[in-house]
Amino acid sequence: SLRPPGLVLPRIMGHRGAKALAPENTLASLKAAAAAGVTWVEFDVMLTSDGQPVLFHDDTLKRTTGVAGAMAETPLAVVQDLDASHGFGRRYGRRAEAGFRGRADCRVPSLEQTVACLLDLGLTPNVEIKSSPGLAKETAEVTLTRLLGLWPGDRLPPLISSFERESLAAASRVAPQWPRGFLAEKLPADWRDAMAALDCASLHLYWRRTRKADVQAAKAAGYAVAVYTVNGLRAGRRLLDKGVDCLITDRPDRLLAAL
Ligand code: G3P
Ligand code: MG
Prior knowledge:
Layout (H helix, E strand, L loop, with lengths): L11 E4 L11 H10 L3 E8 L5 E3 L6 H4 L10 H4 L6 H7 L1 H5 L12 H11 L2 E6 L6 H15 L8 E4 L2 H10 L5 E5 L6 H7 L4 E5 L5 H9 L3 E5 L4 H9 L4 E4 L2 H7 L1
Parallel strand pairs: 1-2, 1-9, 2-4, 4-5, 5-6, 6-7, 7-8, 8-9
Antiparallel strand pairs: 2-3
The structure holds SN-glycerol-3-phosphate (G3P) and magnesium ion.
The site of SN-glycerol-3-phosphate (G3P) has 11 residues, from strand 2.
């Protein structure tokens, strides 16, 4: 049976804010995405050692902050003072980094700071639950419980996505009314049953492994389809031609200008 039409995804969505334009998963990155013209942004949420949700991608702190340690072993008081512009310099050059280094909006943001910034910018979030090992359920429960208290009822609801089925199941219990996205690097054989059981609204696939037949099957089943992370124009066009609804990209500026 067809799902009721509901989730309308934007054609272009920023990835970790706008990862190529500013340090990923920071308020600076959300601002860069909004300045580029997107209306939606994807970002990752993890828990600190004292159970506070923050925007962060890796289990360890090193790549983006330059500091040794694991997110799951570091309290919010320490995490929130880390400068997340460190990895930006390594990847995009020291001159790019210099423009961000030390800025208050490049620290690791709490969920509260993030929501305030999103509302200010008029952005809708795709919140990816990205847990440290063993914390898939707890990370979703804490994040969704907190987000329910922060997100205004008169705004478009957040889209909650995860690679972890346990996180999606927890999200469906805590915030059943908010849409969920099923993330898969490789589409699993049981995707139909899993997406139905978790009552998902969208399928989020790794762009290089996205086959037209799978996109069409998902669309026929009533799901919206997003792909990550698409930064090139030719790849973007090919994926849209396959029927993909949404390109999640580090370069929203480039894709918005041409697609
Ligand atoms: O949510 C899409 C994408 O962000 C998933 O991969 O590793 O960039 O979080 P990753
Ligand atoms: Mg992500």
